[in-house]
Design brief:
Elements lengths: L2 E5 L2 E6 L9 E9 L6 H17 L24 E9 L6 H11 L3 E6 L5 H11 L4 E4 L11 H9 L4 E8 L5 H17 L8 E8 H8 L8 H8 L3 E7 L12 H15 L2 H29 L9 H33 L6 E5 L8 H10 L1
Parallel strand pairs: 3-4, 3-6, 4-5, 7-9
Antiparallel strand pairs: 1-2, 5-10, 6-8, 7-8
Length: 373
Amino acid sequence: MSQSFYHQGRSYGTLEPRRAEGRSTLLSVVVPCKNEEEGLQETHRRLAATLESIVGRDSPPSDIRPGPFSEPKSLVRVRAISFEIIYVDDGSTDGTALILRELQATNSYVRVVRLSRNFGHQVAITAGLEHASGDAVVIIDADLQDPPEVIGEFLARWREGYDVVYGVRTDRPGETAFKLWTAKAFYRFINRLSETRIPLDTGDFRLMDRAAVDALLSMPERDRFVRGMVSWLGFSQVAVPYTRSVRYAGTTKYPLFRMLRLATDGVLSFSITPLRLATWVGFAASALAIMGIFYALYARFFATHLVRGWTSSLIAVLFIGGVQLICLGIIGEYVGRIYGESKRRPLYFVRERLGFSEQNRPAIIDEVEKIAK
């Protein structure tokens, strides 16, 4: 018996095993990319080969049910699975857009979404999810560090009835000891602070059922931390271990500063512990100040030798001032996020869309374009 998922009176699909005979499946693959011209052709080659291999292993369906955002003629209709690849160009400044146009012109299953500027990796993922029509949606980066060949195993676990299948990195060759240590420390740190448990050593490489995708898209926050949001959703989730590869070409789009920003988004989006910590630090500073007062009184009336000077006073003032600034900064981060949410700006704007039908467009896309005009 299937069970529907509802949010504010709206149905977001059914929670049922994906093993019914004669039911065709549309698999969407979302690929966010920024300045990936050096490796994009190889990414597409491996991704397309993997998906065509998956299609070739399935039995012929009795019917094909395309998604509402896709043209039936442009779906790959070989056997029980059809697929689409959605590339999201997140404001690239190199030849990425040209390559994507060529790929779409020669492959009917390719869709391209070009954002008006760089909105960030997490927003690019969200844009891809909003354009995806599949019964299941895979998120994978364009740098080939996450091997497309694992998608077949993702799909197998999804067909067993799991709603979210996420990859767990068992080995990460080619990465520095510092990056490995900080990655491990981050997940353990955020799990200590947050009530939402994020699986260790995961990224955004995952497969999500349509019900989980729609539930995720119903969450309106601006500062998005997708892997944490997916964990917060619940549903039935399972891990698939894999070995992460070395980047095929180009340079990382997550330097130290952006990694720190992502970590900050993760902590502040899923925990108020920093605010509580600021409160406890304030209590500790007050306790130290009271102890200092008692010491000063003791020294004044009972000490035989009293060293006079301004050093201790200066240290105390600097300490209290530092604590206050840190606490103010933490509060400011939360207030800034509240301010950002209150403006209700769209997450992104689309500059160009290729390979999509203009019929049956999702209301959210029409709303964004209406605001843009």
